[in-house]
Specification:
Layout (H helix, E strand, L loop, with lengths): L4 E6 L11 H10 L2 E6 L6 H6 L5 H15 L3 E4 L15 E2 L2 E3 L3 E4 L5 E4 L6 H4 L11 H19 L7 H8 L1 H20 L4 E4 L6 E5 L2 E5 L8 E5 L5 E5 L5 E5 L29 H4 L1
Helix pairs in contact: 1-3
This protein binds manganese (II) ion.
Length: 285
């Protein structure tokens, strides 16, 4: 019987900025049941808020929902990122049930250890970022605006959410190359930390990659792709997309794909649960 999750990892919600897909995130957090919630950085975009404060009711509702669930017993770990690094000075403290940590080690049900951090620490290693084209600069801001505009139009005509950013990232060679280098940096860090894998966010690109027995997991974001990394009670990691049509994006590579016929009851209506191999996953990510 599997009607809840063991852990959920989300990052890059960028609450406080107009780009945040807050309705989808609020819906997701309302519907899922999980023992543990990791907020893996850039949840609140303090950088953007300094420029232009935008904090509508849905954004407030997300924060109060998380705090309410924390009070009700869900373990919440807030790991700040580069857009909310102000909170890094509060690492070690707990606010109404929300633990603030610089990073964390997550142990899965089957005993594997994953280092969890936002992932901006790899910026220096990866450097010369072709993703600067897409993340964190003016072009990226423009693309997000275009993305929101496009999706408002799509909703008006009854089409589901579609990520322009996701499309561009998989179709631009330089962006792919950057992502590959970023993944390598995280996998290398996992090796030197002697853990089974690395869980991060930051580059707004949900993906799994296994290399030399270690697993890279990126939980994606809630400004472009509306994705989360989840762990089932059996200890299997999966990526999901959540909007009008929730669906599984990928299951960790090398895992037995028994989940195809095993949608989580109540979480997904059965028909939307679709199989996707690691190779196909980036299109949706
Ligand atoms: Mn970031």
């Amino acid at each position: 019987m599997q009607d809840s999750l063991r852990a959920v990892f989300i990052s890059d919600a960028h609450l406080g900025s107009a780009a945040c897909q807050a309705e989808h995130l609020l819906d997701f957090l309302n519907k899922i049941k999980t023992d543990r919630l990791y907020l893996v950085g850039d949840i609140i975009d303090l950088l953007e808020m300094r420029r232009k404060a935008h904090f509508p009711e849905t954004h407030r509702a997300i924060l109060s929902l998380i705090m309410r669930k924390a009070r009700e017993g869900m373990e919440v770990i807030y790991i700040p990122g580069n857009h909310d690094d102000f909170f890094r000075q509060m690492a070690g403290q707990t606010f109404s049930g929300v633990k603030i940590r610089l990073n964390s080690v997550h142990r899965t049900a089957d005993g594997r250890r994953f280092h969890v951090s936002h992932g901006d620490e790899f910026d220096q290693i990866v450097q010369l970022s072709p993703l600067a084209l897409l993340v964190g600069d003016k072009a990226h801001g423009m693309m997000l605006k275009l993305n929101s505009w496009l999706n408002r139009a799509r909703r008006l005509f009854g089409f589901p959410y579609w990520s322009l950013a996701g499309y561009l990232k998989t179709h631009l060679g330089r962006a792919r190359e950057f992502i590959h280098r970023y993944e390598n940096a995280a996998l290398k860090a996992a090796r030197s930390l002697e853990v089974d894998g690395y869980i991060c966010g930051h580059i707004h690109y949900a993906a799994f990659r296994r290399k030399d027995g270690r697993l890279y997991c990126n939980d994606g974001d809630w400004v472009e792709h509306c994705s989360a990394l989840v762990e089932t009670h059996q200890g299997q990691l999966r990526l999901l997309h959540w909007s009008e049509q929730p669906r599984w994006l990928a299951v960790e590579p090398d895992a037995e794909p028994t989940w195809i016929d095993d949608p989580i009851p109540g979480l997904f209506p059965a028909p939307v649960c679709c199989a996707m191999t690691e190779k196909q996953a980036p299109e949706a990510a």
